TrEMBL record:
GO biological process, one term: DNA integration
Protein name in the entry: Site-specific integrase
UniProt GO MF annotations: DNA binding
Record's keyword terms, sorted: DNA recombination
InterPro entries: DNA_brk_join_enz, Integrase-like_cat_sf
Source species: Oscillatoriales cyanobacterium SpSt-402
């Protein structure tokens, strides 16, 4: 979004009280809510959004509405449109304005992203062996084995893993702290994950680490870190990990887990689940109820 083409101050009232300017309301909102969010969420969902507002004009519902119309025109039905609509509505309500921008959020949904080919376990294992750098090989193995987001691998407590366990603790990430168990546990030994080795990279935040990952692996394989995360979700289902536990370990709700990941489950996965349940000796038989 390029707001340098014109000055918003030319379009809205600049005469306002000290507490009526955009800058003042953003400052008050920041003091109130920034401490309740992790730094990356605040930066992405609020700071970057509010920085697009003209600082020295009055905060009005008209200003917020007109800027959202611009976002809608430039990025229709995108994550950016939804992010701006939510942040502007919350800021407006905080300032006492009567605003409702639900109609300007667009139709973006992570669950509506185009389906993709999930990498097989064999392909993931083969790809692991093709990574020349030991540090990047280790973080690749961790993402594959624990279903982590690419930046989360740099914010781990691996003490239990190093002491012959199969669990790691995410200390910081997109959705905060959580515990995650290996799936498959055999990959811990196969990928030599008990001895942490990080690539020689520096970063200031989650997004920086994600960019470092993308830069190194771009064009190297036919799948992404997110694809491996999808594979972990499906693998956990095949291993009979309960939905609720799997969702908790991935750092989201059961609803998100089902909508985002399980729609990529292939026919073969359903067939294996059917075979495992319906052909077991102990299941109920017709006429036994």
């Amino acid at each position: 979004m390029n707001l340098k083409q014109f000055d918003w101050a030319d379009w809205f009232e600049t005469e306002c009280s000290d507490l009526g300017r955009v800058a003042d309301w953003v400052e008050r909102y920041t003091k109130e809510f920034k401490p309740t969010l992790d730094s990356e969420t605040w930066r992405t969902d609020y700071h970057n959004v509010f920085s697009k507002l003209p600082a020295d004009v009055a905060l009005t519902s008209t200003l917020l509405h007109e800027m959202l119309l611009t976002i809608q025109a430039e990025h229709p039905n995108s994550r950016q449109q939804r992010r701006f609509a939510l942040a502007f509505e919350r800021l407006g309500k905080f300032a006492g304005l009567e605003v409702n921008f639900s109609h300007l959020r667009g139709n973006y949904s992570a669950s509506e992203v185009e389906p993709r080919d999930i990498p097989s376990d064999q392909l993931i294992a083969q790809s692991f062996c093709q990574i020349p750098d030991s540090g990047w090989r280790w973080v690749f193995g961790m993402v594959a084995t624990f279903g982590l987001r690419s930046h989360e691998v740099f914010y781990l407590d691996t003490e239990e893993l190093q002491q012959c366990g199969y669990m790691v603790a995410v200390k910081e990430g997109k959705t905060g702290q959580r515990l995650v168990w290996a799936c498959y546990p055999e990959w811990v030994e196969a990928f030599d994950l008990r001895s942490p080795q990080f690539p020689q990279v520096t970063a200031k935040n989650h997004s920086d680490y994600t960019r470092r990952w993308c830069h190194y692996f771009q064009g190297r394989f036919s799948f992404t870190a997110l694809d491996m995360r999808h594979a972990w979700a499906i693998r956990s289902l095949e291993c009979n990990v309960p939905y609720a536990l799997s969702a908790m370990q991935m750092g989201h709700s059961v609803t998100v887990h089902e909508k985002t990941y399980h729609r990529w489950i292939k026919r073969e996965t359903h067939q294996r689940a059917f075979d495992a349940v319906m052909w077991r000796e102990a299941r109920p038989r017709p006429g036994q109820r």
